[in-house]
């Protein structure tokens, strides 16, 4: 497989591992957006979060929880970002969670600044989405 994250897991590509668990690893991003930018990834190749088992998800987000406390010490605020699929901006088709230290002067904005406009939905469209997304 030609996945850079799978190559990191296999040791083919060296990385600065911060912590490893049964199903996940965290390491410094090789192309950081800020000092202290960390990635947390599952060891097994999955493109989307919903492709992972509950056990793998629990392990991944437990490691995110552990690492975010350390990352947050850098600036006091941390952006947690997951691009879940190509159209969501996922450049490497392997689940990965970004932990990016943020500061008021870093020129990055809130999530709403990523979009040109907000969706304008009617009450019936909101109701239809509610019905579709609600867990029974």
How is the secondary structure organized here?
Blueprint (H helix, E strand, L loop, with lengths): L3 H7 L6 E4 L3 E5 L9 E5 L11 H22 L2 E4 L15 E5 L21 H11 L3
Antiparallel strand pairs: 1-2, 2-3, 3-5, 4-5
Structure write-up:
The structure is a single chain. By secondary structure, this protein is of the alpha+beta class. The chain has one domain (4-133): HIT family, subunit A (2-Layer Sandwich), CATH 3.30.428. 29% of the residues lie in helices and 17% in strands. It is built from three helices and five strands. The protein has helices spanning 4-10, 54-75, 123-133, and strands spanning 17-20, 24-28, 38-42, 78-81, 97-101. The protein has a five-stranded antiparallel β-sheet, with helices on one face. A hairpin with a 3-residue loop joins strand 1 and strand 2. The chain is globular. The protein starts with a helix and ends with a helix. The model has no long low-confidence stretch (mean pLDDT 94).
Unreliable runs, pLDDT <50, ≥5 residues? none
**CATH level-4 homologous superfamily:** HIT-like
- Helix and strand sequence: HEEEHEEH
> What is the class in the CATH system?
Alpha Beta
Specify the overall morphology: globular
Q: From the structure provided, what is the oligomeric state, counting identical versus distinct chains?
A: single chain
- Strand line-up of the largest beta sheet: 1-2-3-5-4
* Topology, number of strands: 5
What is the correct CATH architecture? 2-Layer Sandwich
Strand content: 15-25%
Provide the number of structural domains. Answer: 1
Calculate Rg over CA atoms: 17 Å
Helix content: 25-40%
Question: Termini distance?
Answer: 38 Å
């Amino acid at each position: 497989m030609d996945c850079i994250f799978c190559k990191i897991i296999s040791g083919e590509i060296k990385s600065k591992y911060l912590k490893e668990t049964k199903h996940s690893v965290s390491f410094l991003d090789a192309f950081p957006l800020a000092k202290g930018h960390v990635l947390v990834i599952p060891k097994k190749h999955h493109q989307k979060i919903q492709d992972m088992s509950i056990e793998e998800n629990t392990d991944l987000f437990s490691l995110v929880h552990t690492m975010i406390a350390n990352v947050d010490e850098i600036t006091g605020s941390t952006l947690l970002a997951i691009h879940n699929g190509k159209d969501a901006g996922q450049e490497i088709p392997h689940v990965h969670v970004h932990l990016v230290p943020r500061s008021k002067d870093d020129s990055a904005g809130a999530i709403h600044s990523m979009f040109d406009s907000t969706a304008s939905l009617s009450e019936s469209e909101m109701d239809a989405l509610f019905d579709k997304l609600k867990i029974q």
